[in-house]
Hints:
alpha/beta, five-stranded mixed β-sheet, globular, 2 domains, seven-stranded mixed β-sheet, Aspartate Aminotransferase, domain 1, 15% strand, 13 helices, Aspartate Aminotransferase, domain 2
Amino acid sequence: MKPDTRIVHAGRHPERFDGAVSTPVYRCSTILSDSVADLKARNKAKFDAVSYGRTGTPITMDLEAAVAELEGGARAIATSSGLAAIAGALTALLSAGDHLLVTDSAYFPTRRFCDTVLTRFGVEVEYYDPLIGGDIARLIRPNTRVVFTEAPGSLTFEMQDIPAIAEAAHAAGALVVNDNTWATPLLFRSFEKGVDLSLHAGTKYIVGHSDAMLGLIVCRTAELFERVKTCVGTFGYSLSGDDAFLALRGLRTLSVRLARHQDSALDIARWLQNHTDVARVMFPALPEDPGHAVWKRDFLGCSGLMGVELRPAPVAAMEAMLDALELFGLGYSWGGFESLAIPTSGSIQRTATPWSAAGPTIRLHIGLEDVDDLKADLERGFAAFRAAAA
Length: 390
């Protein structure tokens, strides 16, 4: 089946639920067994039977099955947030004395978890240039267990050569974990590019409506699934039936929503490139972007998230611009139907490589509104920017 068909039918079993098109919500903790033998059988089946609410119900299992099928992994694990997926995956794969390599452009909460939790537990964390490619081999040590990637990079949108990184990592016996939230399972085929664990903040595009928190860990092999699922369960990470329902509902329209996000984002990105108040647009789908060649080679499309560097001006001018916006909401997260904007000046952290911008920076998520209306809203913001910068 083609992706647009698979996304409609994956993880659906109407025959199990009296013909219901969508898996019903299961709100439960206790699962009753018919006998002691049945109780023991459920426990023995571990991850393949419903035995307790925290370990999974039919709706969370259908969500996991659908996402794993879409991305081409063996199995998936649903968690309560994207950060829970990151924390659960890394904790499952690392022990005291291990060495972890993390892209210098990683999502800040990933960085904070590595620096404040993993290091406290004896894991050595080292950050690397996101553009290092196959040269990462020179940083890999005998105790390097995991290389963490994210493409494009958070806030600054560098493209990583994940196939080259994966080749070097696997040659040394290390695993590759990739944060695939920006591209979703539809736009980057993680396991075809050498990734071992693909992580998603399903809060974003998979849920798609800014009304549920969700994380997903998709595992390349059944062995990795069992290892990670055991750790995630031990920590008590779980997903409610209501949030799983919202995620499955959002998943069914992911492909059509992404197509609109892509078209609108490309239109606005090109418009911003030619705007006198913009110094740079950070968006790998643009031919002028430094990472465009890698994006075009490895990705099947783009989503609606981008970075923008404004022309040199006081930070107060950027803040005036954002305050003047009416359609772009000022709020964290992204991937929903609505357009969002946040300031990123002062939020971009680097320890392995320098990064600087002459002007203030912002991040935009292009939602599903009319593009001309969004441009008019941004122009309203730019007028406030110019007035404050004068």
